Each structure stands twice: as structure tokens, then as C-alpha cells.
Amino acid sequence: MGDHDTHGSGPLDLNLLRTFLAVHxxxxxxxxxxxxxxxxxxxxxxxxxxxxxxxxxxxxxxxKGVMPLPHADELANQxxxxxxxxxxxxGEEPSSTVAPVHLAGPAEFMNVVGLKAVxxxxxxxxxxxxxxxxxxxxxxxxxxxxHDLVVATRRPRGRTLHAELLAxxxxxxxxxxxxxxxxxxxxxxxxxxxxxxxxxxxxxxxxPIARRYWRHVFDRRLHVQAAITVPDLxxxxxxxxxxxxxxxxxxxxxxxxxxxxxLRLLHQPADPPINTAYLVQRPGNSTNPHVALVREHxxxxxxxx
Length: 305
Known about the structure:
The protein has helices at about 15-25, 30-35, 40-55, 70-90, 105-120, 135-145, 175-185, 190-195, 210-220, 235-240, 255-260, 290-300, and strands at about 60, 65-70, 100-105, 130, 150, 160-175, 200, 230, 245-250, 265, 275-280.
């Protein structure tokens, strides 16, 4: 181990290194124990033994999982390739040495766009563990090591996470044809007032997307109570498509319905409101090569969204 082996004597137990690499890749003592088929206390004991041997801490313990310290990243980079090669030589399945990629993001985005981009990677041996949720909790879980990649609807503050632009999603004002036909004769200045008297379908009581559209496009406040609220944009899309009312939705979510005529655009502003999505991960390159593969596929696919 070169200059790492300075605080102990005798050969270093290979199991300590295997356990360390599993914890580093999975970001969790519990997940590493499950993968290695040992108890969590065994993992804890082995990591402490390795830290004592090296004379420094390797992980910062968090409420949810662990965060590798810089020395741990350096050690993992040195160990990853030789331990994976050794696993092949000893007859272990090569795929078992590469941890699943933990990917997280908004439920609607993962359902409509994200999984279409990355699910085919299973044919290359990639294993995926997908979680859905709101951006803020997912970013906290990313910091704690529970995810490898997070699709976020805002850029995280500070330097603890690395974010890169994924895609801009455009918001569109839509309704079923039955409503669109009633509104076709209206001038643009009359449209917002008329819509405020018609049923609005939204995912939250405070109408965040619709209010933003009103401010950005019509330069006025939206004064209306929702006819239906449902905390899932796919369900909002369903309600709008069956003619329950109108809504403002991300364009990627209703592209198929607009193309087929099941939904109609009610307004086409020259400068529609957009929301930027980011692909976020912890700083430094992951020792799991499949994380880079998933990242590259998401970024490449985003160019067509």
C-alpha cells in the first residue's frame, strides 16, 4: 500500500479493503453489509480497523449514510481496478463488483424522460436504483451519500455538490380541444381574464407554475382557486386531457398529447417561461464506472428534449 501502510505492521487484511470499497461505492454501511452478506457491525468494525491502520478517518458519518473524505476518494481510486480484477480472477461475477447506480429526480421527469434515456443501459450490465421526490430532500440525501446522481429543478447552493446544466423545460398553457375551441376567438389580452373564470387543474394549492406563467407572460397576478389539485403532474395531465379544465405544464410532459391533438396550446408567447434542470453529483469522479455511463447518457439524451 506504499505510504498508506504507515500505522500498522504485517500484511493488510484484504477483506478490510473490499469492505472499504463497498462502503465508498454505496455510501452506506448498511448497503455495504447487505452487498457483502455480513452484519453491519462487521462493516463498522472493519472500517474502524482500516482507519486505525491508516491513521486517519475515511468517512464522515451522517444521519443518512456516510460521506467519503478526500483521502478515501484517493484510496478508492487506487483500489478499484485491482480489486475488481481480483474478483474476476477468483471467480466472482464481474457485475457483482460494480455497485448499482442510484439515480433520483422528480417523479414525472423520471417516468417520462429519464428512464427512457438510461434503462437501455441494463443491456451493458448497468444496474439502476431509482428514487423519486422533491429537489430539496433529494439534494440532502445526495450530500449524505444515498444517491449517485440527482436531477434537480434548481442549482444547489454552495460547493458541496457539483451541478451541470441538463435541460431547459418550457412551460405551456394547455387544455383539451373542447376548451381550446371556445377560446380561439379571444384576443391575447382577454385570454387570462377568461381563463380565470374556467376550471384550473394544478398540483398544489398555491398554483406555483400557473402563477409564474401569469407573471412572466401576461404581466399580471393570477386570481383563481383550483378546481382540482393533485400532487402529481402526470395526474394533472390526465385531468386536463379528459376535459376537466386547463393547466400550465412542462412541455416534455405533454408533447405526445399536443402532437396527437388530444391537447391544444392556448397561447404561444414569444418568450415562454422556462425552468432549468440540473444533473447533480458529489464532487470528484465516482469510482463506479457505471455512474459516468448513466451521466453521459442523460446529458446526451437531454439535447433532444
